[in-house]
Amino acid sequence: MDVCSSIFDSQAGSRNRWSYDSHKNSRQISPAVQSHLQQVYLTLGCALVASAAGAYLHMLWNIGGVLTTLASIGSIAWLMVTPPYEEKKRVSMLMGAALLQGASIGPLISVAIEIDPSVLVSAFVGTAVAFGCFSAAAMFARRREFLYLGGLLSSGISMLLWLRFASSIFGGSTAIFKFELYFGLLLLVGYVVVDTQKIIERAHLGDVDYVKHALTLLTDFIGAFVRILVIMLKNSTVKNEKKKKKRRGLNERSYPKAVALVLG
Asked: Where are the transmembrane segments (predicted)?
């Protein structure tokens, strides 16, 4: 019995090792690339904290708007032309760009806090969960498996731009706005997958510019967060309006009865 059990245990262990090794080979992510990804996501987390600080500064001093958006674009352009060996300078530029982006979406966050603060928390948690799930899907998939989606996503972005251009000339509608909102969110989720695999592939080829890669993921995260927040705000507004209508209907029904009871 002992011999049989030892044979069984050795076979089970070999099956487990085989499945783990085959799964690891299917991912084909080397330890160096894994270390690079850790650095990228750590930098991304710091950038998100800087964005939250920018939104908070807007609520204090009302600084968010067109100027912060232009300043953020300028910071990103400056970062892209700065040589990679100036690491500290590029990290500071990334944090500055993230802070300005947070200030730029500060007006939307202020509206969310006025309507329902819980919507803001739910939108951030939902964005973080979706971002983490799709990033993990891209990491555990085979290399270059989803890179072909880049062309489709670019075509979708072009279609949204032309649709926005046409609606600005001929006038938009609620249906077009909803389509842009939901379809744009779908495209951004796709870009999370594609950009993650691009980062992995470039790291395998020797491109370990973690600042630029963190900037790419930061743009995807903020874009998805804004759209999810707008969708949740619209749904919350519709629910509040329905509740108000119900209350008005109940008051209108109960008012004549109350008057009749008072008048006897």
From this structure: 63-81, 93-113, 119-139, 146-163, 175-194, 214-233
